[in-house]
Structures are given as C-alpha cells and as structure tokens.
Amino acid sequence: MSDIWCLKGELPVEQASALDDLLTEMGDERGEFPPTLSYFEQPGETNWLVEIFFASKPEDGFVAEMLERAGLTDWPHDFAAVEDKDWVSESQKLLSPVEAGRFFVFGAHDRDKAKAGAVNLQIDAGQAFGTGKHETTAACLEVLDALAREITPHRVLDLGTGSGVLALGAHKIWQNARVVASDIDPIAIVVTDENIEINTGTPRAMGDDKPGIATLAADGLDDPAFAGEKPFNLIVANILAGPLVDLSADITEALASEGTLVLSGLLVTQEKEVLGAYERQGLVSLGRVEKGEWLALSLRKP
C-alpha cells in the first residue's frame, strides 16, 4: 500500500465546499498545508462524491476533529490507504482533448491530435487541478479567446493557477504580456513550471520587466512579491465561491483601472453572492459563460 490515505463519501455540494474551507482553516491553524479535497457531480444523484487525500496517514484525532467541526459525525464514509497505482496514467485514460474557443487542450497520450491553426496546450492529469476538462477551466478559456478580440493586457494574473493552463493560454495569445501564475499549493507551482517547459512557454522571474510567465506559491495577494507586478490589466481567478467573495477587496485592489476580471469556480446558484461582492467594490458586470452548473463571470473596473 502507498502512504497516501483517502476519505471518501457523498455530500450536497454546499457541504462539500464548506468542508473544503474547513480543511484550509485547520491547515492554517496547524501551520501546514491541508489535505486535498475534490468533489464531483454524480449524474442523476443529488449528492456529490467527495474525496479527501492525505499525503500520509493523518495524526490521531485529525479526522474526528474535522468531522465534529463540520457537523458530520454521523457521515457515512470510507477511510483507507490508497492502493499503489500509476494514477497519472490511469486518469489520462479518462481524458479526451478539449476544444474551447481557439484553444485545444490534450494530454501527452493525444499529442498526435494537436490541431493546425489552434492554440495547442499539452496539459497532463497530475497533482494539480486544471486539465481543461472541467467546465470552469473550459469556460475561462472561452472567455480568454473572446477577450483577445477586445483587449491587449500587459500584466496578467492567473490566481489559483493549478496546472497553469489559463496562464499558458494567456501567454500564448498575448505574447508580449507579463503573466503571473500564482497558487496557494507549492505542488501546483512545480506542475505549472513543468507545463511551461512542455509547452515552450517563456519563463521569467517575479518582478522582471519582460514578457513571459512568472510563478509564485502564495496565500492570496498579500505576498510582497506581487508589489513589482501589480496592478494587473487582466486577472483570472478560477477558485471557489467562498474564496472569491473573501478576496473581492484584494482582487479589486490588484486590478488596474479599466482592467478586466474573470471569475470562475462558482456554481450558477452562487452567482448572486459572488457578483454582488464585486459590484460592491465598484466593478461592472460584462457578461457570463455558463457550462452545465458552473459559471465564468467577466467584469470591468471603471
């Protein structure tokens, strides 16, 4: 067996999102990165499948405390060590290429399917979120494609970059832009750096005044490294509704006047809450892209 442990069960999406926020809170309290929680819609089912992965067997009492604080002491779930497998290869088998606007996103196993005339991005399933398959990522790529006909941003931020797919997309269509790919998870930054190399992107250091992609592991926008990059003409934040609301003031402050903001990672049912948070900051709605139950919102700062 591997050192990785998984807790698995089913919950309504609102409780799954709240549990994800709780894990982040517990990680902050302990000064360590929290376990990774993912939740997936199940066709024909009300509840979503929730999976929480631990890099090693958690300390005694962690799971019990988590369930108690979440009000889930009676929650039916499985908790066991994960069988050793090549999970990247296994997940790649389930992925097919994705087309979103001018973008064509594929895994290494589909490299021969790259399309002439498209912006081809090779993004493999791995340890960071974002292969282009999820509705929120595809929606953001469609929005970037549409924005390329309207704006030419010089400074771009992909907040919560995951695999780096959106940062790479922006880099490919605005080749003279200074792009920052930021994530709270250091593993995501390692994956993004690898994907920049795979896709022949141009890396740069934070603060360097030249085109390319700089990467940064940071919790939010308070990191001093952002000082040499702000304000951004375009910010893409594909995270979750709760953090989007919590960060609304910080994100708005980091956005340049007449800058464009793309928000995703939220459900259709969460639109009013998230949009309201940014309208209260003075931003103006430009429109929305709906993908299944998920949304991408576009806004402009006057």
Give an account of the 3D structure:
The chain is an alpha/beta fold. The chain folds into two domains: 5-84, Alpha-Beta Plaits; 132-300, Rossmann fold (3-Layer(aba) Sandwich). It contains nine helices and 14 strands. It has helices at 13-30, 62-69, 87-92, 135-147, 165-173, 186-198, 241-246, 248-254, 271-279, and strands spanning 5-11, 36-40, 48-54, 77-81, 98-100, 103-106, 119-122, 155-159, 178-183, 212-217, 232-238, 255-267, 284-291, 294-300. A seven-stranded mixed beta sheet has the order 10-9-8-11-12-14-13, with helices on both faces. Strand 13 and strand 14 form a beta hairpin. Helix 4 runs parallel beside helix 5 (165-173). 36% of the residues are buried. The model is unreliable at 90-94 and 127-133 (pLDDT under 50).
Q: What is the residue-mean pLDDT, rounded to a whole number?
A: 88
How widely separated are the two ends?
Answer: 55 Å
Number of domains: 2
How big is the Rg?
A: 19 Å
Query: In order across it, which strands form the biggest sheet?
Result: 10-9-8-11-12-14-13
The number of helices is: 9
CATH level-four homologous superfamily name of the largest domain: Vaccinia Virus protein VP39
CATH class descriptor name of the largest domain: Alpha Beta
| Biggest sheet descriptor | 7 strands, mixed
Strand coverage percent: 25-35%
Instruction: Bin the helical content.
Output: 25-40%
E-strand count: 14
